[in-house]
Amino acid sequence: xxxxxxxxxxxxxxxxxxxxxxxxxxxxxxxxxxxxxxxxxxxxxxxxxxxxxxxxxxxxxxxxxxxxxxxxxxxxxxxxxxxxxxxxxxxxxxxxxxxxxxxxxxxxxxxxxxxxxxxxxxxxxxxxxxxxxxxxxxxxxxxxxxx
Length: 147
What we know:
The chain is an alpha+beta fold. The chain has helices spanning about 5-10, 60-75; strands at about 25-30, 30-40, 85-95, 105-115, 120-125, 130-145. About 30% of the residues are buried.
């Protein structure tokens, strides 16, 4: 299953500038997904991280992985229109190399477990086939806030 940006926006509450996934490829509900983030110089975080040497903050790479995991969790859980996935934990995070403008992040998420509404994922981020970051991520569903 492939999800384009409008499909992703139906599953996740994130919007610009914090929606960090452009497309999800090879989504297998209850198992795994591969997300794509095209990193451009127009990203707002590059203004301050770092001027003259733009590097995508590691925490945003983790967030991009979490968003792919959130989409997998949403598809796996089924009818959750009144709820949204919340990122609840990070374990074993490692950053292997910087990510910058022009890079295409490939975000590979594997669902390790899903019990009592807690989803645990193994996430890895690659650029050109090279591992740039990895982490274990956790998420739960909670009611969508009433605006």
